[in-house]
Amino acid sequence: MQGHMDSPLTDLGRAQAKRQGRILHAQDLPADTTYHCSPQGRARQTAELVLSGLSEAPTYDDRLKEVSVGNFEGRTMAELIAGWPDLMTLKSAYSWHYRAPGGERFEDFSARIAEWLDSLTEPTVVVTHGMVSKVLRELVLDLDVEGIANLPGGQGVVYHVKEGVHRRLEG
Q1: Phi, psi of 31 (to 5 degrees)
Q2: Which of 31, 75, 87, 155 has its Cα between 20 and 30 A from that of 149?
Q3: CB-based contacts of 70: which residues, under 8 Å, 6+ apart?
Q4: Residues 6+ apart with CB under 8 A from 56
């Protein structure tokens, strides 16, 4: 688990980022599109590949950091299952991600993302993390909190959200 920790992109991560870049280049992005990114190293590396030719430099914002999973950061899933078996069975929006000892609670995580979202005035491309993506989509689509558990995720994907419609873009 990484949370606020970091690691460099793998070969697979770089390939996924290049695919995301191809997907974005194929879109008819409005001229006033802004570009934002989590300041974490893995997101920055992704943004360099994804936004090449689209943006000189995105706006980095701490509010786009991945959820902190506190004492779970740096541990493997096997260690988490062994140490916290009851937490690891949670599948709802209030999953173990928001119950990690010393970690960020859903309400705080959602509030920082909502604050960032409220600051936007233009169409925006954001390079960020999986849990951030789910909460962003939950907020924009006005889902109830349990709706997050049903949102698709995945690495190396691009989602388009506009006027209450959510779709995954394909290359």
Answers
A1: -60, -30
A2: 75
A3: 3, 100, 101, 102, 103, 104
A4: none
CA-based nearest residue to 95, from 114, 69, 71, 65 = 69
> In the structure encoding, which two tokens stand for residue 99, read together?
């119950």
Residue bearing tokens 């996924």: 16
Read off the pTM: 0.90
pLDDT tens, residue by residue, 131-155: 899 999 999 998 877 777 788 888 8
Residue 1: the pLDDT is: 85
Find the Cα–Cα–Cα–Cα dihedral 24, 25, 27, 28, rounded to 10°.
130
Angle at the Cα of 93 from the Cα atoms of 90 and 96, rounded to 5 degrees:
40
The torsion angles phi and psi of 35, rounded to 5 degrees, stand at: -125, 125
Which residues in 34-53 are b (16+ Cβ under 10 Å) and which e? ebbbbebebbbbbbbbbbee
Say which amino acid occupies 100.
Answer: A
Q: Are 55 and 92 in contact (CB under 8 A)?
A: no
Single-letter amino acid code for the residue at 165: V
Which pLDDT value is given to residue 49? Answer: 96
- Residue 61: name the closest of 14, 13, 117 by CA: 117
What confidence score (pLDDT) does residue 81 get? Answer: 85
Strands 158-162 vs 165-169: parallel, antiparallel or unpaired = antiparallel
Q: Do residues 99 and 90 lie in contact, with contact meaning Cβ atoms separated by under 8 Å?
A: yes
